[in-house]
TrEMBL record, chain A:
Belongs to the MurCDEF family. MurT subfamily. It holds the Pfam family MurT_C. Gene3D superfamilies: Mur-like, catalytic domain. This is Lipid II isoglutaminyl synthase (glutamine-hydrolyzing) subunit MurT. Forms a heterodimer with GatD.
Automatic annotation (TrEMBL), chain B:
Substrate binds at R127. This is Lipid II isoglutaminyl synthase (glutamine-hydrolyzing) subunit GatD. Forms a heterodimer with MurT. It holds the Pfam family GATase_3. Its EC number is 6.3.5.13, 3.5.1.2.
């Protein structure tokens, strides 16, 4: 008990000091506390009435933040890790807050087992499983198997799963409480795909799956011609989707009702994020009107498509960390846009993934067809990005390789077009944000209120 | 002149951007006015050994590789016939392993391979991954071939010569300094993904091997490879250990 007490207060003291120093402090307090009491995460978690874990490859942070906002708007006391610190230390930091009614925890898909061994979650929401950091997670099927083992530790938890992702639905097999969310066919659904795919082997009989259509990547309406495995019916389904650069509008059909939703977040991946968070909220009997109100005003956090103004320049900063993320980011950013300068900043540090081969798995065609003024390649792997673009048909005169991040921004700012789109891997994101701020750029995103509620 | 390229199992064996190599080979041929015809051959398709000058086989996740390997065994004799007749071939990672004699899994099960390369692969307990540089003498240049490897299997050559000598990285098995395999004009390697992107010398070497089947010795006009070679050199130097194991 003394150990737990010490751990708790050491963590809280660290959180307090981090805030005094105005440092992020999203992992350090939890890290220290876990050093003193390795079981603290589980002890803290047991003080919450409900624990919801959000995991998957893409969309975790946005979904977590949106879900927490919905609960808060419904009058619940919520604790969550708002800034994507999703390893055990970050999860523990969030839980160090004073007792809450509900905890919404983003958990890294590769370390889920470390968390579920201690944290007896009531609900686990899985967004998708996409190709990401192959040097770290190895193959998706192996990752799915690891998640399945992690879920076995919490057999009573309700699973909220993406019906459109065959890898994710395979995690629901043999489970009692499973609810699926998904998208009905949209005007943007395609019968073929130019992306490199995974998740197209039948999880049951291991024959290739066939698809009636794809939404993006391997998400879509799949079926196995050999056995009866297919996309399960979605209890929470998006219908009549309208999507443009200003956001999305759709009906969410759920057991017992239909909720018209409007979101200012662009891109089909954000439709999934809204759907996932709304499904979890409705499943927990949150008032649909509250869900609709929060969704209508919710914008993603910093760096996840953050816009800045600087003089007459309009700059957008976006995180890209895997081939699907890059494909979708380019599709979203180029849609209906005039002449722009693009800056692709690729690093290969541990948090980015050491292997940059994934650049060749992305579908770059939206960029190649966009009216780009120039494409600047930056970061430690600027050259790899440039070669990829060269072979996709970008003329070398329109390509500029500037590995140094500061210099790349200065070059971008001197371009004769006003629109600048910066796509960064993980370790470049904070760096570019800092460089832009230092040049006087003003963020146009209202920052999210500090939601984690750490004391 | 025309290059006939056969891309085997493009939808199954496509881990790590392997398909980039097909694009690179096509572009480097087209930039020289050589027409290119790419045929995608997959499960159940017949393979005419005389129809192609160059075969490409990527790596895949375990499940996909399992599906492809059963089919590849059936196509094996055609593929061997093509290589014996002088066709060029590039096989990467999983594709390379499937072309060996067998793969012994961690449970001791032996999965048969095509037997094009006199080499066998055994499952290892730790994955060999990271940036790698090798020296390939046949390229006739001092430029190293560099790339990224990420494989659980250890491959041991049994008479087949290696593609190159490891400068840094692990290569076939992390112990004998060999990387890849060569048999006639066929190349197998663990350097995965867009291998040819930073190695234009290797790309052109493959193109020459492929074209000589129909056209005899072919001289390829030089291209401006300054970008590719600058990246080759930068990556090579960045990961070159100060105290190498060689």
């Amino acid at each position: 008990m003394l150990r737990t007490f010490l751990a708790l207060w050491a963590g809280r003291l660290a959180a307090f000091i981090c805030r005094l120093l105005q440092r992020g402090g999203t992992s350090l307090p939890g890290y220290l506390a876990l050093k003193i009491d390795p079981y603290l995460m589980g002890r803290l978690a047991s003080r919450y009435e409900k624990i919801i874990i959000v995991t998957g490859t893409n969309g975790k942070t946005t979904t977590t933040n949106l879900l927490a906002s919905i609960f808060r708007a419904a009058g619940l006391k919520v604790v969550h890790n708002s800034e994507g610190a999703n390893m055990p230390a970050g999860v523990t930091t969030a839980l160090l807050a004073r007792r809450g009614e509900i905890a919404v925890l983003e958990v890294d898909e590769g370390t889920l087992g470390l968390v579920t061994r201690q944290v007896k979650a009531h609900m686990v929401l899985i967004t998708n499983l996409l190709r990401d950091q192959l040097d770290r997670y190895h193959e998706l099927e192996q990752l799915a198997a690891a998640i399945s083992r992690a879920l076995a530790a919490i057999p009573a938890a309700t699973l909220i799963l993406n019906a459109d992702d065959s890898l994710v639905t395979s995690l629901g097999r043999g489970r009692e409480k499973v609810r699926y969310f998904g998208l009905a066919r949209t005007p943007w659904s395609q019968e073929t795909t130019s992306e490199v795919l995974e998740g197209h082997i039948c999880p049951r009989c291991r024959r290739p799956l066939e698809f009636n259509y794809y939404h993006y990547s391997h998400l879509g309406d799949y079926f196995c011609p050999q056995c009866s495995y297919s996309r399960p019916p979605a209890e929470y389904e998006v219908r009549d989707l309208e999507l443009n650069s200003g956001g999305a509008r759709f009906d969410l059909v759920y057991p017992g009702g239909k909720l018209p939703l409007r979101s200012p977040m662009p891109g089909i991946y954000n439709v999934y994020n809204v759907l996932a968070a709304a499904s979890a909220a409705l499943q927990l009997k949150i008032d649909p009107a509250t869900v609709g109100r929060v969704v209508a005003s919710f914008l993603p956090g910093q760096g996840r498509a953050e816009t800045f103004s600087l003089g007459n320049k309009h700059l957008t900063l976006m995180l890209v960390k895997n081939p699907t993320g890059l494909s979708i980011a380019l599709k979203t950013l180029t849609a209906g846009r005039g002449k722009a300068t693009y800056l692709l900043a690729i690093n290969d540090l541990a948090a980015d993934g050491r292997d940059v081969s994934w650049l060749w798995d992305a579908d770059l065609s939206p960029l190649l067809q966009a009216p780009y003024h120039r494409i600047i390649c930056a970061g430690l792997r600027a050259g790899d990005m440039a070669i990829c673009l060269k072979y996709q048909g970008v003329k070398e005169a329109n390509l500029k390789v500037i590995p140094d991040q500061e210099e790349s921004v200065d070059f971008l700012l001197e371009e004769p077009v006003d629109e600048g789109l910066i796509l960064c891997t993980y370790t470049n994101l904070a760096l570019y944000r800092r460089i832009l701020k230092a040049r006087g750029a003003v963020s146009e995103v209202t920052p999210l209120p500090s939601l984690s509620g750490t004391p | 002149m025309k290059l006939r390229l056969c891309h085997l199992y493009p939808e199954l064996l496509n881990l790590y951007g392997d398909r980039g190599n097909v694009l690179i080979l096509c572009r480097r041929a087209e930039w020289r006015g050589i027409a290119v015809e790419v045929t995608r051959i997959s499960l159940g398709d017949k393979l005419d050994p005389k129809a192609y000058d160059l075969f490409f086989l990527g790596g895949g996740p375990d499940q996909e590789q399992g599906v492809a390997s059963a089919d590849l065994l059936a196509k094996g004799p055609w593929l061997k016939e093509a290589v014996e007749a002088g066709a060029a071939l590039l096989a990467i990672c999983g594709g390379y392993q499937l072309l060996g004699e067998y793969y012994r899994t961690s449970t001791g099960e032996t999965l048969p391979g095509v037997g094009l390369f006199a080499a066998y692969t055994e499952a290892g307990n730790k994955r060999l991954k990271g940036n790698i540089a090798i020296q390939v003498e046949e390229l006739g240049t001092d430029w190293p071939v560099i790339g990224f490897e990420n494989h659980g299997g250890r491959t041991f050559l049994q008479g087949t010569r290696p593609l190159g000598r490891v400068i840094y990285g692990d290569g076939n098995n992390g112990t004998d300094q060999t990387e890849g395999a060569r048999y006639r004009n066929a190349i197998g390697t663990y350097l995965h993904g867009p291998l040819l992107s930073k190695n234009p010398h290797l790309a052109d070497y493959l193109l020459r091997l492929a074209l000589q089947r129909r056209y005899g010795e072919v001289e390829l006009p030089p291209l401006d490879d300054s970008l590719e070679l600058a990246v080759n050199e930068a990556v090579y130097r960045r990961f070159l250990p100060t105290k190498g194991k060689w």
